[in-house]
Design brief:
Elements: H1 5-17, H2 23-51, H3 56-73, H4 76-90, H5 97-124
């Protein structure tokens, strides 16, 4: 059975803060999510630049960093896409920019919806 994006995020936040987070832990989780939401669009822009003409080594490093950020917040599908980019770049191959950015954008939208909802839930409790 495939886990939902919401389950992935909740499980990751539970790993960070424990099973019954207090006020401080909820605030920390909210800050982590809000930081990811704020920084990811710029990182995706940079990913696009690198896909369209950057050095494969730079692309590999950037995709690796983005992958780690996505995984750390529980956005596993997005992390998986970025792992594919990282692995291709490691082999010296730059994936098709339009296809790759389309996949990243689609998954980013789905992940952001879940993350926004979860951050709002944390902030209201």
């Amino acid at each position: 059975m495939e886990r939902s994006r919401q389950d992935e995020v909740r499980d990751r936040m539970r790993d960070i803060a424990g099973g019954d987070p207090g006020t401080a832990e909820r605030a920390l989780m909210s800050r982590l999510i809000r930081s990811f939401l704020a920084k990811t669009p710029g990182a995706v822009d940079r990913l696009g630049e690198l896909l369209r003409g950057g050095d494969p080594a730079e692309l590999r490093d950037h995709a690796h960093t983005m992958k780690g950020s996505a995984a750390n917040i529980g956005a596993g599908v997005l992390a998986g896409i970025l792992a594919e980019v990282e692995n291709a770049a490691r082999e010296g191959f730059v994936p098709d920019p339009d296809v790759t950015l389309g996949r990243v954008a689609a998954e980013q939208a789905l992940a952001f919806e879940v993350l926004e909802r979860f951050a709002a839930e944390l902030e209201s409790s």
